[in-house]
Write a structure and sequence with these properties.
Blueprint (H helix, E strand, L loop, with lengths): L9 H10 L1 H15 L7 H13 L4 H18 L7 H13 L19 E6 L6 H14 L4 E6 L4 H14 L3 E2 L7 H14 L4 E6 L6 H16 L8 E7 L4 H13 L4 E5 L9 H8 L4 E5 L7 E3 L2 H8 L2
Helix pairs in contact: 2-3, 3-4, 4-5, 4-11, 5-12, 6-7, 8-9
Length: 317
């Protein structure tokens, strides 16, 4: 189909293919069983396919949409062989994701309208938030941008220390205070520092607690309000980091955070270590929030801009 044209470099594509290997192997293992002994796509195959998609963490609502699309193809074409199912799935999932504007970027770009461009990063502890911030800082710096980090997760000393390690590794400044400091104060100092240094990008870490949604909402609202005293309309992007290896739990976290604060983009991490890569398809479809980045390995280069065409192409390769 015209959907699938080469966009990524071969090296980047190879990393994506490798990162999705476990998900792909698991999915096609289940798919083979679902169509075993069948020559055409009938009701039984569709029922089995529905089970495969749900168990691959695509999500119930997105699975039903995909099944509906395939049913339309079956009724229109009258006869579809099971050997064509892979191609049909690939086309229909790409078509579904193409109905939104998610995942069309190929590079780590920032809008030129805002300087500095302020990204506030949210997400529960353990999802790869700090690592994502470090890798993002690396990618932006590689493009020649002036990057400043802010350690506003003052709830855990380890969070500040981890961010310092990444700041040192990438070679960018980190604004921090002691553990227990007011996160809004850290955010304020970070933006002040960024403005004085004529920074292009500011990335601010925030506390990853969901045990009390009201407190989280109040804290994030306060951080935003203080930011806007220094840089108009900041943060320009609220990036929610989700651990892809948690499957349906990632959906739940997305629901919780989107109800606690205004999330404008998503990063899905740890896809290389899991067979639950289908979660990216479901999250892309279900939330009206773009998946901007995906983590497909532990290396510093292994955070990629999410491109839906390349993702679906690798998943069904």
């Amino acid at each position: 189909m015209s959907f699938f044209k080469k966009i990524f470099s071969s090296e980047k594509k190879e990393t994506l293919d490798k990162g999705l290997e476990k998900s792909k192997t698991s999915f096609f293992g289940k798919l083979s069983k679902a169509v075993a002994g069948k020559s055409k796509v009938d009701d039984e195959v569709l029922d089995n396919l529905e089970e495969v998609l749900v168990s691959s963490d695509v999500g119930v609502n997105t699975t039903l949409k995909i099944i509906e699309r395939i049913e339309e193809r079956v009724s229109k074409d009258k006869y579809l062989g099971t050997d064509e199912l892979n191609v049909i799935l690939r086309e229909e999932i790409a078509g579904l994701l193409s109905e939104t504007n998610v995942g069309e970027e190929t590079e780590f770009n920032i809008p030129q309208a805002n300087k500095p461009h302020v990204i506030m990063v949210v997400g529960v502890n353990g999802v790869g938030k700090t690592t994502t911030i470090g890798k993002l800082a690396y990618q932006f710096k590689k493009q020649g941008l002036n990057v400043v980090l802010g350690a506003a997760d003052t709830f855990r000393a380890a969070a500040i220390d981890q961010l310092q390690v990444w700041a040192d590794r990438v070679g960018v400044p980190l604004v921090k205070q002691s553990m227990g400091s007011d996160p809004a104060s850290v955010a304020f100092d970070t933006l002040k520092s960024a403005v004085s240094q004529n920074a292009d990008v500011v990335i601010i870490d925030t506390a990853g607690r969901l045990h009390n949604k009201i407190n989280l909402m109040n804290e994030l609202t306060k951080v935003k309000r203080v930011m806007q005293k220094v840089v108009d309309h900041s943060p320009h992007d609220v990036l929610l980091v989700l651990d892809g290896s948690t499957g349906q739990n990632a959906f739940e976290q997305a629901k919780q955070f989107t109800s606690a604060t205004e999330v404008t983009s998503l990063a899905v991490t740890k896809l290389d270590g899991t067979a639950k890569g289908g979660v990216v398809i479901g999250i892309s479809d279900q939330f009206k929030i773009p998946v901007k980045y995906i983590g497909v390995g532990e290396g510093i280069e292994d955070l990629q801009v999410f491109n839906k065409f390349e993702f679906v192409d690798s998943f069904f390769k």
